[in-house]
Design goal:
Helices cover about 25% and strands about 25% of the residues. It has about 140 residues and is an alpha+beta fold.
């Protein structure tokens, strides 16, 4: 998983993140690859934001529990459109037991810690057509 600087604050995404977030990424990548053909397997992702970037003060990014992924296998989501890899990765992220937010080109889901329920059509969240935002609790 290469880390590159793409954020406007000029900081690298190579920052410490929570172990749950790392475990969630590993789980989701393995799970997604089980459902993809050999030619579609996810061999690399680009994480362009961890604790870097311009995020709100209450953002899961600032807590080290969120990442933003903008490309899979070197293909930027802003250019590739919705692919099977994006669909399978987001579906797999939803299966991780500690998932909190899963916003991307395919859907926007959020788990509420307070009510122990899912919002499967999260309103009021900016479009995530060019990346997947994944956070854990």
């Amino acid at each position: 998983m290469p880390f590159k600087t793409y954020t406007s604050d000029g900081k690298s995404s190579n920052q410490k993140i929570s172990q749950h977030t790392i475990n969630g990424l590993k789980f989701a990548l393995e799970e997604a690859n089980q459902n993809l053909s050999n030619s579609e397997k996810i061999t690399s992702i680009n994480i362009y934001a961890t604790t870097n970037g311009n995020h709100g003060p209450d953002s899961n990014h600032s807590r080290g529990t969120a990442v933003d992924i903008n490309s899979i296998n070197g293909d930027r989501m802003a250019l590739s459109g919705l692919t099977n890899q994006i669909k399978e990765l987001q579906k797999a992220m939803d299966k991780y037991e500690k998932v909190r937010e899963n916003y991307g080109p395919f859907f926007k889901h959020k788990y509420s810690k307070e009510t122990n329920t899912w919002d499967y059509d999260k309103k009021g969240i900016s479009p995530h057509k060019d990346h997947i935002h994944f956070s854990t609790r």
